[in-house]
Design brief:
Chains: A alpha+beta, B mainly alpha, C alpha/beta, D mainly alpha
CATH class of chain D: Mainly Alpha
Mean pLDDT of chain C: 85
Radius of gyration of chain D: 22 Å
Protein name (chain A): Glutathione-binding protein GsiB
Strand content of chain D: under 5%
Domain Solute-binding protein family (chain A): 94-465
Helix content of chain D: over 70%
Low-confidence stretches of chain C: 1-10, 289-301, 320-325
Pfam families (chain A): SBP_bac_5 (PF00496)
Order of helices and strands of chain D: HHHHHHHHHHH
CATH architecture of chain D: Orthogonal Bundle
CATH class of the largest domain in chain C: Alpha Beta
Largest sheet of chain D: none
Oligomer: heterotetramer
Number of domains of chain C: 2
Number of helices of chain C: 21
Keywords (chain A): Periplasm, Signal, Transport
Low-confidence stretches of chain D: 274-280
Function (chain A): Part of the ABC transporter complex GsiABCD involved in glutathione import. Binds glutathione.
Strand order of the largest sheet of chain C: 6-7-8-3-9-10
CATH topology of the largest domain in chain C: Rossmann fold
CATH topology of chain D: MetI-like fold
Structural class of chain D: mainly alpha
Number of strands of chain C: 20
Chain lengths: 555, 306, 572, 280
């Protein structure tokens, strides 16, 4: 998941992966080895040119691909650098990018990528296979302190390297025009891993020359080049004329203005001063905008792989009692909460969002039934309810949602005190054993790094996450389910795709029997763009990029 | 004078040291572990421990503080946990914006406050006086964010006279500076009024009148330089108030100053940035007081003599 | 010049420069109008010095401000009469026209040279300003310098660039005079121009004024409460009381044959230097022979109450960063004296000579070095706790009786305070004692429930004395205790103090800058200058045969309330 | 007293407003038409938008469908409580440190005043933010934080006044009579500082209400659903265009109350200190 450590004025706007079809991305790995990079044919012709303005509230942190891991810099890094694999814009469909072609061994343990010839970094040097090896090793190297190291855990030599016992990843070898990866175990998600930002290719000599400043003066081989960065004010990106795929991107440049209140950004957008309000439409403005005649041209409303939930700490009394947890699940009026967020979400009943492979649309979950909830509490020996604490981040609308939950809980006699804190403090409380009985995940909610159900389990519901400083804030650990999860993840045989999917799906619905979460809703992402901006909605709520700067264009 | 300056400088340095120590202790006690936040969700306990070690967070508080001070003396404010860059350039990049805003705000305060104060003092007890005094009360009683939102809505969003947000041109600074200035002007008006009334009752003003000077000359040449002294002392204190005010104002107007930086850093428990911003604002306050202390003698020769 | 008894024919005498006729001024108060000046009339002839004399509140200053058109508009207003300058009525003249006269035709100087100059402007700016406003800019600077030379200021070129705080009080008053005369006004109004100055400086300034009057041909209205100054300066005198002129006459007849009772009273109250010549002690005010209430000793001067040896007090030396003091300045150095029971030591000197500091150090109120023996105990280095019993032996009375009383405490409580502190008596006993003390100082017992601001200055000083007496001290340090009082009140308070000394055997360390008062009160006199004792001896020795030139200078500088013996202005 | 009131309409107005606010706070349960934290189904439009003032909801509803009028009434309790508690503490600390530092100039006074300077140099809001984050915000913590931020100013003023008092002759007279330090401090210095303390306490309440609002605006104030004027505005600030009543009414309440306290404080200063009459 991406850290959304920032003050989000609206619903959690997080980098999302939109999965339009249920076709498993893994399948692509075994498609004919030469997949031409290309685009979903847009409805209208893209005219090249145009300079656009994008706004964000928060500072852009580093643009170093080995480090950057938040939803603002994610899409910029995507466009500054290229990777072996990428996605078709607006879809979760994997395509080779820097790789001209690739092969996978039948046992799923060896991947060979042949690189495009003549791809150049923006400093003029050609990209060679050694750069790929260097870049991934850099992301894994503990000295980098990169948050993405764990994704590469399947590559041979990972453990030695991350423990500091080796100088590099023994599993990556290169020759004149190709890179070979040897895995220590089958990883059904490995091609996705090579498409995430941490696998971006960087030029070693520049990284070493710039040292710590590389994140502020990035050099890559992507569609755009960072021309200028006025810290705290704006970043200017210009089109990389030498990008190895001709005709990409469309716009000549985009300027990211920082420090703009989302509300102000939308007001400016309506006046035509801004083209994309990066932080989306704040709730206050949402209804008005959707009702206005301009709405059709300005509002992009897309689904994302998001679930908002309340964690129930299984190590804190009385939440350690499954009946209590079930009772709480039945107490929440999710329809009302959805109304409070102006209908920008749909009620949820399981951890996985509807568009995620493995989502069980027949699963009913716990229906809203306060009477039954009270009964369950009585059975649990708590006829008069109990007192507890509900944590939430302190940015609108999270405290409001927490209050709605609080009122629902009060209806069955559960008195929840709200602690609305800065995000960092909530995360710290969640990662401390016995500290936070309940946490509303809003603003920090789980969004998959890539469209695979496995990504929704490990850190947030698996035993490995239930440690101090971990992200499994329910402190939930079911050994049986854990075993089934591991089994499902090693099913890398393409023939078993459906089976794997079903296995994962069952894991998530079975988790609900233990009720460590109250899944509340799946939120849609609302983006505001100026009317001159063209293209389908997908490229503004791109499942892999948030905003796909490569694909957007000016009408 | 030089001795005074040296003394005040050392005093200021000690105050900053105190501020650094207090902030350090406070932040150390914050219930959030930067290492965990940095490591991200897919991190193992080993990674977290590694990061903690690399940041020196596993060392005793005193050692950490000692290192921090050592670096500080070399102008090194440490590295931001989240942004992975040196803090000093981050703050330096944003400081001009905040300083510009503060300067504009203070200028507005002074111009509005001093002229209204003089006006009220001259029309003491009259309608103008009462009006000015009432307005000054409304000024100091109004929540800053309310004014910020109101000005934004009226003058930028509705009337479109000024840009809504951003930085760079003179037009951009008007509304944020007005938000800071209009409210603060109330204090200045009150202070200047009261000291002006005081000064106008002084013997030397009577002397000036006995010399047959014009009222204008008496007010501007004789009374004002004396009456302005308390207002100058106020500027030093004011900078402290402004440092708080800019957080709100910068947030509303998207002003790229250190207020926004501070707010983000607090949300992210980015201790080096919080430390840096605290020290810089404390330094601004201290320098402001210092400048006020040193400006007063320029106007008042009596202080010059010590 | 003498006033002719007949109605003044226009041709017989030069026409007055300034004529005030039936001037009436009212004050606006919440309760309505109240009269401040009533039917004030006088005429100022060319080259004449007219003194407006009177005690505080008599309307002297209001008169002068009315002439200048400087009455505070909000509260005071001329409601009748006329002020004619060269025949032109100034009452109701528009501000613009009035402004031309101020500083141009009428100059004015004030009591406090310290505060009457703008502290943030150079002397040059303040001087040239007036010249420029009234007479154009041409040679303002040269004329300013000429004016400074005319008032005999040392190093005038340098003074021009200086700020008021860099000048001494005397120099500032000279600058004020230079400023007031810079446009050669016809009339100079001097409102208590020397009251705030040391006696020697006063003599110089008075002399200067006389000299300049001749030189510039200016007529002077001199406002003063000091009959000595009147006698030294005036051609004619108008005595004011409660907003009226009670008597107006040439100066010699006024002093030799005052017609009005009030004038006589006023003159009688003025202490005259040399009045005690040939005697050893203060005048006896009680008819009976000395009998101390305490009984024990019946011979005054046996017991030494206070002995000070080699006393030094350091001030200043700004604290450095670490709280240590830097190089200190000596405020008092090597002062020694002794004071016996029932006697008064007059400590005299000009401002800044260290008199008050000596007084406070003698009571251990400020840190000092040297030896102070108070009632037989050396107090150096004593803790406040150890000092406490000694406090009963010695008390202090200050210059400003209002400031030395807690405004939030009733008079009774204030007088009882020392008794409470020392745990003397119960509530009822204390109340009785307070009543007795109040009666003792000439007030009544029912005053106890009132608050200080309800009393007049003289009464307040009596209250302070009562409080000082509460502990039946042997010694009272009186620090300029009568300086703030009007002459008539001053005389009565001094008499009270003498009477208390006679009946209770009090010893006084009497600190004053006023030679006449010192002469009246003291048995012994110590003259201080710049922190040191320059002369110390019996009163008679000091006043009748001073050894030191400085002492002689001090005595010579005192204005004599006798116009026939003018010595200050005319001597040099 | 009544005459004084009549002659000072501003004081009268201030007192009336304060009385109204106090009454509203005290009798909130009687006056309020709804529970302050009741999220009513009919309090939101079908799309989830807050409702404008109407017969049913006199000041409209907030974004959770709660009655704004009821929340403002209960919010007055919180805001006033914080104002009084925070200022009480701040004035007490300031009085203690200021008098001690002013009376015992020298090492003790110097140290205390350097510490006060340090607190003055500390960016107040930053301190408040860090402390609030550190201590987990609650009503009392917010009050405490504000007190800790505000005392330094009171201490400075008290210090200056004590210094000038300590040099007055009547204090010297007390010492000459043999009065101990405690007696002088308690009986002769403190009573003179009471008006200052009252005035600053009153003026401070205005600042405090504003600071609480600012803390809430930044999301670190009183915890929801407990209403305070600050967090009511904070929760709804982004609706200032769509639902202006959500910002306007609480904003006006804060403004009016702050104004009232300022007016009263100023008038008190004039009345208790005749020498200051007519000054700022």
């Amino acid at each position: 998941m991406l850290k959304t450590l920032s003050r989000l004025p609206s619903l959690p706007l997080s980098r999302s992966r939109l999965l339009r079809s249920s076709v498993l991305a893994v399948a692509i790995a075994f498609a004919p080895a030469v997949l031409a990079p290309g685009f979903v044919a847009p409805a209208m012709a893209q005219t090249p040119g145009g300079d656009i303005v994008v706004t964000y509230k928060d500072d852009i942190a580093t643009l170093d691909p080995a480090i950057g891991y938040d939803w603002q810099n994610w899409s910029m890094i995507k466009s500054l650098f290229s990777r072996l694999m990428d996605y078709t814009p607006g879809t979760p469909n994997l395509v080779p990018s820097l790789a001209e072609s690739f092969t996978v061994s039948p046992d799923g343990l060896t991947y060979v990528f042949k690189l495009h010839k003549g791809v150049k970094f923006s400093n003029g040097r050609e990209v060679v296979p050694a750069d790929v090896k260097y870049s991934i090793e850099r992301a894994v190297n503990p000295k980098t302190q990169g948050p993405g190291a764990g994704f590469f855990g399947a590559i041979e030599g990972f453990d030695e390297f991350s423990a500091g016992k080796a100088d590099g990843l023994s599993g990556i070898t290169t020759d004149a025009d190709s890179v070979t990866f040897k895995l220590s175990r089958p990883d059904a998600t490995f091609l996705h891993v090579l498409a995430i930002n941490f696998a971006s290719v960087v030029p070693k000599e520049v990284v070493e020359a710039e040292g710590a400043d590389f994140g502020k003066k990035p050099v890559g081989s992507g569609t755009f080049i960072l021309k200028d960065w006025v810290i705290g004010q704006k970043l200017s990106f210009v089109k990389n004329k030498d990008y190895f795929q001709k005709g990409v991107p469309f716009i000549d440049s985009f300027t990211v203005e920082i420090g703009q209140e989302p509300l102000v950004a939308v007001l400016r957008l309506q006046k035509g001063e801004v083209d994309i309000a990066g932080d989306g439409v704040p709730p206050a403005k949402f209804l008005e905008m959707t009702k206005s005649p301009d709405a059709a041209g300005m509002i992009v409303d897309g689904e994302q792989l998001h679930t908002g939930y309340v964690t129930l700490n299984t190590k804190i009394k009385p939440l350690d009692n499954v009946k209590v947890r079930q009772a709480l699940n039945m107490a929440i009026n999710k329809d009302r909460i959805v109304r409070i967020v102006n209908g920008r979400a749909t009620p949820a009943n399981q951890p996985l969002p509807p568009l995620m492979p493995g989502y069980d649309k027949d699963f009913k979950g716990y229906a809203y039934d306060p009477a039954k909830a009270k009964e369950l509490l009585k059975e649990a020996g708590l006829p008069d309810g109990f007192s507890t604490v509900l944590y939430s981040t302190n940015t609108d609308p999270q405290p409001r949602i927490a209050q709605a939950i609080q009122q629902d809980l009060a209806a069955i006699g559960v008195k929840a005190e709200i602690k609305a804190l800065a995000q960092a403090n909530v995360i710290a409380a969640g990662g401390t054993e016995g500290e936070a009985p309940m946490i509303w995940s809003g603003g920090m909610a789980w969004i998959a790094d890539f469209p695979d159900p496995s990504n929704f389990y490990g850190p947030i519901l698996g035993c490995a996450g239930a440690v101090a400083g971990g992200w499994n804030w329910s402190w939930y650990c079911n050994k049986d389910l854990q075993a089934r999860a591991v089994a499902a993840d090693s099913m890398s045989d393409p023939a078993k795709v459906k089976e794997r999917e079903a296995a994962w799906g069952k894991v998530f619905t079975d988790i609900m029997a233990d009720a460590p979460w109250i899944p509340v809703f799946n939120e849609r992402r609302i983006v505001a763009k100026s009317k001159r901006m063209g293209g389908p909605a997908e490229i503004y709520v791109d499942p892999t990029r948030v905003i796909n700067y490569d694909a957007i264009f000016v009408k | 004078m030089l001795a005074l300056l040296a003394k005040r400088l050392v005093q200021s340095a000690l105050i900053l040291l105190g501020v650094a120590a207090i902030t350090f202790v406070l932040l150390y006690a914050l219930p959030a572990d930067p290492a965990v936040l940095l490591a991200g969700r897919s991190a193992t306990a080993q990674t977290v421990a590694n990061i903690r070690h690399q940041l020196g967070l596993d060392q005793p508080l005193l050692v950490q503080f000692w290192h921090y001070l050592g670096n500080l003396l070399q102008g090194d404010l440490g590295r931001s946990f989240t942004q992975k860059t040196d803090v000093a350039p981050l703050i330096l990049a944003r400081l001009p914006a905040t300083l510009t805003l503060m300067a504009a705000g203070i200028a507005m305060e002074l111009v509005i406050g001093v002229s209204l104060g003089i006006l009220a003092a001259l029309r003491r007890g009259g309608l103008v006086d009462r009006l000015v005094m009432s307005l000054s009360f409304v000024g100091v009683s109004t929540p800053q964010f309310l004014v910020a939102l109101l000005l934004l809505y009226v003058f930028a969003a509705t009337l479109g006279w000024f840009p809504m947000s951003g930085y760079g041109t003179a037009a951009h600074i008007v509304l944020p500076a007005a938000t800071l200035g209009i409210l603060g002007a109330g204090w200045y008006a009150r202070i200047v009024r009261s000291s002006m009334i005081d000064v106008l009752n002084q013997d030397y003003v009577r002397t000036a009148r006995a010399k047959g000077l014009s009222r204008r000359r008496i007010v501007l040449r004789h009374a004002l330089p004396n009456a302005i002294l308390p207002a100058i002392a106020m500027i030093g204190i004011d900078i402290g108030q402004f440092m708080s005010g800019v957080v709100v104002v910068e947030a509303v107007y998207g002003w790229p100053g250190i207020g926004q930086l501070a707010w983000q850093a607090i949300q992210q428990v980015d201790i080096p940035i919080i430390m840096g911003v605290t020290l810089v604002s404390a330094a601004a306050i201290v320098i402001g007081n210092l400048v006020a202390d040193l400006t007063a003698p320029l106007i008042d020769p009596r202080i010059r003599a010590g | 010049m003498t006033l002719t008894p007949r109605p003044t024919p226009a041709l017989a005498l030069p026409a007055p420069v300034l004529e005030v006729a039936h001037l009436t001024v009212d004050a606006r108060t919440p309760a309505g109008l109240s009269r401040v000046l009533e039917d004030v009339s006088f005429a100022l002839r060319p080259g004449e010095t007219l003194c407006l004399a009177g005690e505080s509140g008599s309307g002297k200053s209001v008169t002068s401000l009315a002439i200048m058109g400087l009455l505070p508009k909000a509260s005071l207003r001329v409601t009748g009469g006329a002020i004619r300058l060269d025949g032109r009525d100034l009452v109701g003249l528009p501000e613009r026209a009035m402004r031309r006269l101020r500083g141009g035709e009428i100059g004015m100087i004030f009591q406090e040279p310290m505060t009457s100059l703008n502290p943030v402007m150079t002397i040059r700016d303040q001087l040239t300003e007036a010249i420029r406003v009234h007479q154009g800019a041409e040679d303002a600077l040269a004329r300013a310098r000429a004016m400074l030379e005319a008032v005999h200021i040392s190093d005038p070129a340098r003074r021009l660039g200086q700020y008021p705080h860099e000048l001494s009080g005397g120099m500032r008053q000279r600058v004020m005079i230079a400023m007031a005369l810079s446009c050669r006004p016809k009339v100079l109004i001097a409102d208590e121009p020397t009251t705030a100055l040391d006696v020697t400086v006063q003599a110089q300034i008075l002399k200067l004024m006389r000299e300049l009057k001749g030189e510039f041909g200016t007529s002077i209205i001199l406002i003063t409460h000091d009959m000595g100054v009147v006698a030294e300066m005036a051609d004619r005198v108008a005595v004011m009381k409660a907003g009226r002129i009670v008597e107006q006459a040439d100066v010699v007849p006024l002093f030799t044959a005052p017609r009005e009772a009030y004038t006589r009273e006023l003159l009688a109250a003025v202490p005259r230097l040399g009045a005690r010549a040939g005697t050893d002690g203060p005048p006896r005010v009680t008819p009976l022979p000395t009998r101390f209430e305490t009984g024990g000793e019946n011979e005054a001067g046996e017991e030494t109450v206070l002995s000070v040896h080699n006393l030094s007090v350091s001030y200043g030396g700004a604290r450095n960063l670490f709280g240590r003091r830097g190089e200190a300045q000596r405020a008092v150095e090597g002062v020694s004296f002794a004071l016996k029971r029932g006697r008064t030591l007059g400590l005299v000197g000009e401002s800044g000579s260290g008199k008050s500091t000596t007084g406070k150090a003698a009571l251990g109120l400020i840190p000092f070095t040297g030896e102070v023996v108070l009632d037989g105990t050396a107090i150096a280095g004593l803790s406040p706790r150890a000092m406490r019993p000694l406090r009963r032996a010695a008390q202090m009375i200050f210059q400003d009786p209002y400031a030395s009383l807690d405004p939030r405490m009733s008079v009774g409580a204030a007088i009882a305070e020392p008794l409470v502190i020392h745990g003397i008596g119960n509530r009822a006993e204390r109340r009785e004692r307070v009543a007795a003390l109040l009666r003792r100082v000439g007030l009544t017992a029912d005053h106890a429930t009132r608050y200080p601001h309800e009393f007049s200055g003289g009464q307040r000083q009596r209250i302070c004395i009562a409080r000082a007496l509460a502990l039946e001290p042997k010694l009272i340090v009186a620090d300029e205790s009568v300086a703030a009082l009007d002459v008539s009140v001053r005389a009565r308070v001094l008499d009270l103090m003498l009477e208390l000394q006679e009946t209770m055997g009090l010893a006084y360390l009497f600190i004053s800058h006023d030679m006449a008062v010192i002469e009246k009160m003291s048995h012994e006199v110590a003259v201080m200058r710049a922190g040191r004792l320059v002369e110390y001896g019996t009163r008679r020795a000091i006043f009748e045969a001073p050894h030191e030139a400085y002492t002689r200078e001090l005595i010579a500088a005192v204005p004599m309330p006798d116009p026939t013996r003018r010595h200050l202005a005319e001597a040099g | 007293m009544f005459r004084t009131l009549l002659r000072r309409p501003s004081l009268l107005i201030g007192l009336i407003v304060i009385a109204l606010v106090l009454a509203g706070a005290l009798f909130a349960p009687l006056i309020a038409p709804y529970q302050p934290d009741a999220q009513m189904f009919d309090g939101l439009s079908l799309e989830g938008a807050p409702l404008p003032p109407s017969h049913q909801f006199p000041l409209g509803t907030d974004t959770l469908g709660r009655d704004l009028f009821s929340r403002l009434l209960y919010g007055a309790r919180t805001s006033l409580l914080i104002g009084l508690v925070a200022n009480g503490i701040a004035v007490l600390i300031g009085l203690l440190i200021g008098t001690i530092a002013g009376y015992f100039s020298g090492l003790v006074g110097g140290t205390l005043m350097r510490f006060t300077d340090l607190m003055m140099a500390f960016p107040a809001l930053l301190l408040a933010i860090v402390l609030a984050a550190l201590l987990h915000p609650s009503l009392w913590i917010v009050a405490l934080v504000i007190a800790l931020v505000n005392w330094a100013q009171v201490a400075r003023i008290v210090y200056t006044e004590t210094r000038s008092l300590a040099e007055r002759d009547f204090i010297l007279a007390e010492r000459a009579m043999g009065a101990g330090h405690l007696r002088i401090l308690v009986l002769h210095i403190l009573p003179h500082l009471v008006p200052t303390a009252i005035v600053w306490g009153t003026l401070g309440i205005a600042t405090t209400v504003l600071l609480e609002a600012t803390l809430s605006f930044l999301g670190i104030g009183v915890q929801p659903p407990e209403p305070s004027w600050g967090n009511i505005v904070f929760e709804s600030q982004s609706y200032f265009q769509q639902a202006p009543w959500l910002v306007f009414f609480p904003g006006a309440a804060i403004l009016m109350t702050a104004l009232a306290f300022n007016l009263v404080g100023d008038a008190l200063r004039d009345i208790t200190d005749p020498t200051q009459r007519g000054r700022g």
